[in-house]
Every structure is written in structure tokens, then in C-alpha cells.
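Appendix B. Raw example, untouched.
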Amino acid sequence: MKMKRGLLLLIVAVFTISGCASMMSGTTQRVTFDSDPAGATVMIGKMKTEDGKTIMVDGYNAGVTPLIVELKRKNIMVQISKEGYQTQDVALVRCMNNWVWGDIALTSPLSTSIDTSTGACNEYKPGQYMVSLQKIEQ
């Protein structure tokens, strides 16, 4: 009897201290980038607003298009560039992950705050981005 009660308490504790969205869909998401023309460099970094202008900080080269990248569900800025073409900033659109409703309905406010802090409460929609690069006129 004590073992069953202990197991039940363990299950309840896991669901109340861990976020539903974190458990079900994770804190990262696979996002696809493509460009016309292909072979453009994809830079990914943190998004920061400075003097009313959005800039990228701590950027890294993720590869060339077409590309699939595993991204954290946080504020991210993406730049796609190719020699001879204008660099394009890509705004990744985030919306609420539907698993957050599981936090609200089934578990505790603690789990909702866990999903918010890890970024699991968000998801990128769409998960695919196609960028048409404009040739620089010389």
C-alpha cells in the first residue's frame, strides 16, 4: 500500500513540477530555411533591441541553404546572405504552443512558469522559411 501511494505521489510530483509543453514538445524546434538562389549563408543569433533598432548579437554561422536547424524557442534573429545579394533579416514568428493548455488545465502554475522560462510555451509558425534574395545592382 505504501509503495502504491509513493508511486502515485511521484507521478503527481513529476507532472506538477515539470512543464507539460517542455515534456511533450521540448524546448527546441526544427526549422527549415531555403533561399532563391540556394547556397546562401544562414546566421543565427539572439535578438536585441538597441536605440529602437533590432540587432543580432552572438550570431553564428548555421550553414547554407537549404538547411534544417534545431532552434531554441526563444527570441532569435536570422540573417540570410549571399555574395552579390542584399542580406535579408528573417523574423521568426512565435505563437503559443498548444501544450501550454495542458499546463493550465491539468497541472500547476509552477509548470506554466517552467515552460515560459525554457521557451517551451512558444513554437515557430511556420516551421519553414523561403527567402528570395535581391541581386545588388552595380
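End of appendix B.
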